[in-house]
C-alpha cells in the first residue's frame, strides 16, 4: 500500500482484522486491538518480557538478547516472531479467503509454533514441550 500511496493513488485502506485504522506495519503488529488481545492471552499464561510500545522497529530492537541456555529468552524472542507471522497469515486469510479467527486462535497457533521451533532446534525436550502446550491449551 505504501507504494500505491507514493504514486498518488488514494484507496480506502482499513485493516481487515479490526477495520479501525489504516493498514500499516505499526498498526498491524503493535497497535491493533486484535494483536493486543493476542498478546494479553499469551502474557496471562507466561510472563513475556517484550515491550509493545512504539513502532514495529522499536519493538523488535528492544527484544531481549539471547543466552544460549536460557529457554525463557528463547521463548520470548521466538514468540515475538511467531505472533507477527501468525497475524500476517491471519490477515492474508481474511483478505484472500474471507476467513477470520479470534485472537485466542492466533495466540495458541503462535505458542504451538514456538514450541515446535524450540523442539526442532533442541532448545527444549519433548516433555518440556508437552508441558508448555498443556499450559497454554488449558
Structure, explained:
By secondary structure, the protein is mainly α. The protein has one domain (24-137). Helix content is 64%, strand content 0%. α2 (25-31) packs parallel to α3 and α3 (33-45) packs across α6 (103-120). The chain is globular and about 50 Å long. The termini are far apart.
Q: What distance lies between the first and last C-alpha atoms, to the nearest angstrom?
A: 39 Å
Q: What overall geometry do the principal axes of the alpha carbons give?
A: globular
Report the average pLDDT across residues: 78
Parts with pLDDT < 50 across at least 5 consecutive residues: none
Quaternary status of these chains? Answer: single chain
Q: What amount of the residues lies in strands?
A: under 5%
Q: Number of domains in the coordinates?
A: 1
Number of helices: 7
Q: What's the helical proportion of residues?
A: 55-70%
User: How many E strands?
Assistant: 0
Major sheet size, sense and barrel closure:
none
Radius of gyration, in Å, reads 16 Å
The chain-level structural class is: mainly alpha
Strand/helix succession: HHHHHHH
Organism: Linum trigynum
Protein name: Reverse transcriptase zinc-binding domain-containing protein
